[in-house]
Model the fold of this input.
Amino acid sequence: MVVFVTKDEPAPVPVHAPALAQAPVKALDPDGIGVASVGTAAFAIATAICWVFRATLATSHHTWFLWVAATGTALGLVALALGVASGRRRRRSSDADASLTAIGDQDPTSLEGNS
Done:
């Protein structure tokens, strides 16, 4: 396909319509606390099991199992801390937005001082 464009005419812009549309649904767990806590608990249990059997792991040269489980536990704790901080920030932001909306909904004459 050949398109001729002169100086007076703008270039044609192709129209792109996405094949899939995003559903307007809220996230079930926007902070990821549930997923992070389950994963952290699983890694903590794996760390405890590997710690109990560390002699067996050492004889079979699989001590890295223990370190992988301990690293997963540590990273899970970091993810939990970040998720909690994100949730607090989001709640503070939504509380501030709600209070601003409540102030905006008031009658302007009620905001004036008694003179």
Q: What stands out?
A: The longest helix spans residues 64-105. Helices lie at 33-52, 54-59, 64-105.
